[in-house]
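hey m, so remember when u said the tokens were messed up on ur end? i reran from scratch. heres the input so u can diff it against urs
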Amino acid sequence: MRFSLKLLLLAATVVLTAASHASAQTTQSNVITETRSEVVGDAFVVELENKVKQESLFSGLQKAGIPYTVRISFSTLFKGVSLQTDAQNVQRISKVPGVRKVWPLWSIIRPSARVSVTGSRLDVIHDMTGVKEVQQRYKYDGRGIKVGVIDSGIDYTHPALGGCFGPGCRVAFGYDFVGDNYRGPSTRKPDPDPRDTCNGHGTHVAGIIGANSADMMGIAPAATLGAYRVMGCYGSTASDVMIAAMEQAYLDGMDVINMSILSNTAWADTPDGLVANRLSELGVLIAAAAGNSGRIGMWATTAPGLADGVLSVTSIDSVKYYATVFTLSSDSDEVFEYIDTQPGRRLNFTEVQIALARSVSKPSNDLACTELVGGYTGKIVVAQRGSCSMDAKARIAQRAGAVAIVVYNNVNETFSPIVDDPRAIPTVGIQLDDARVLLSAINAGSAVNATFSEELRLTTNPNGNLISDFSSWGPGPLLEMKPDLAAPGGQIYSTWPLTMGNGYAITSGTSMAAPYMAGSIALYLQAHGKRNATPNRIRQAFQNAAKPVRSGTSIRGRQPTSVLRQGAGMVDVMQAITGSTSVLPSRLALNDTDHAAGGIFSYPGSPIVRTITVTNNGKASKMYSMMHIPTASALGFDARGSITANPKLSRSVATVRFMPSRFIVLPGRSQAVTVTITPPQWLPAGEKWLYSGYVVANPHEAVHVPYMGMKGSLHNVRIFSTATGYPFLQSAQDGSRVSRPNEKVTYTFKGNDFPWIHVRIEYPTRLFFIRILDAKGKRVLGLVPDSTTELITRTDWTPENSELGMAWDGTIQTTMSNRTVSALPNGRYHLQLVALLPFGKPDKESDFDVWRSPLISVARS
């Protein structure tokens, strides 16, 4: 029989755990696995209908004989509970009266942040963003504004953060939802104390928002902080914990919330995403990190920043930064920057000899991976990166008597050498270009001494005012226009737990950019008053005032970076607060050709018409001139249909016309402007180029409105790309693979004689499942049990997210209503992998991408 695809949405969402290509898997189980954990096994969020009480759910579960344990009950922003129960119970739970939907429990991670001792103090950055002028001219400091930090807690004992916790303290609100040793659902031990003593991330974020000391000044140094600890010492949490934290922040009266946290899903309509949008509707804006996956290509921004009501913030590098440096006695003008293993530590050596590592076994080898030969007592060893761990290099140099080791990179990039042993000698990293100069001085023959000063040196950043290389590309999977804004996030100096060093550290990431935005919003709320500053008004003010930044690799000189990378541009807090011109809407999401023009006569490249409204909020009449700033068009797919790690750029850009293009607006009045955008003429629609740029209303204060669209149809993108060698079936017994339609394979399903199904998801999909077809591939017999999965993020070529894998034990689920599972009889069959295309409807067969396996013979004895 053919199944109604509508029913597939009710199927259990499977557990995603670690997987590999191992050829000998000893356990047969129908469990989708992935190399990064996206959902938490045997835990689910149950959403209830509006008028249904939790007691009614519990009663229904008991009547149905479904065992469960309540994890968290929600009371304010989300109607439902999270439960611990076996995945096999999900279908039965969905049938309990009053249940609206059963969601998987997503894992949520802290974005990886680069930790260093080279970075920018906030006083330097505040000049870039207008914060310094706002603080000095208007004395705005965030007083009276509550900023919630949902993160790893805050070390409230830090003097710059008030030194105490509770009423009357700077950190006046908070709760620990997980406990220090949280590693997953079964280890959650909440308590009232949200102090961060072992992670650092939340403390660093809090300092950017509101530190107040002689060492540093945050954006809103008088704001009241709320510490909502959702991560322990190990840096991960779950979506139900996030919902609980958002509810508590709302109940505590937070005016703005920072979430420097990423879900592992590229879809916004998850329970925590829905709650984030609900907060925006209730007047509480969230600033969220856009993500640090800039090197995996487009469609890398994830939730919660993808939610429409959330501000997704990407990172910009500072124009100047304070660097930890050393100099050589042979040339004191030559300065070498280094990054230490421990945040906040600065080395202090004066005229200490440096010497190149020479091994006993390989004297010409400078890797320091085997015992060193020669005298190194009291010296600093210089070694090349590679071949062994940093811990090993440090131990070997230490045994030779060295007081420190300088490890140089094998590529011309800065890096932070990771040493886990707290007893190891100081280990610092330098980039390859600096190493060449250093090695030349050492090899000149005379002894070379180095001086490491504790003082930081203010240095001009060649990448200043550029998007940080780690910042994730947008857009969302349905061409949602993300990120929204950019703020400083590269090499930021801020507070750090006192238990983990001297109280300050420098880290990089969009995790640092988001709190800069949150602090800026606090200043705006103080300036305009909470009643007048709705989330939509705040978004409009900051996007209008933002300044597009140029690309470091632009093909058109000083052309701005794509909107897909920077959103509206660099935050300008001064203009956002004091600007007297507003333009609505503050962003123009044009979607693809199928959805942009909205008319039956639209075609790839046809003009798209939108209307914006320019309002003069000043006290005098203004003359406006409309202008267009294009950015390079970007292609996110390669010739195989896979998302490429390095998007291709083109000089072909959109053209824009305005009607009227020049006009005068009286004080308090508005002018409607028709904007006609024509996609780039010479770009093939079949390649799916994304074009973007800025519409500018240009009085003395330029007001920008970003736009972005796709030339072509996103609906016909490939979810499965056979050009990459996927999907394929792999024998758990001998590792052999089959993938081509003309191949055949036989499985007995005895012992390890069963297949693993390996697939790459080349583009995010809302719905994935595996059918079992007859030998002719014409008739659907049923489903592979537990293969149905919703809201899947795309895979990429990073080791932790390269594929999905599923072991199939030869069973079949014959109906959706009672989930009857039985052994598939002997015979010949095909498996059919099915994934919903963008903008597709689950009840429309043609809206799915499919892949059919080679012919499979089931030969049970």
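this time it looks ok to me. The first strand starts at residue 32 and ends at 34. if urs says something different then somethings off w ur setup not the seq
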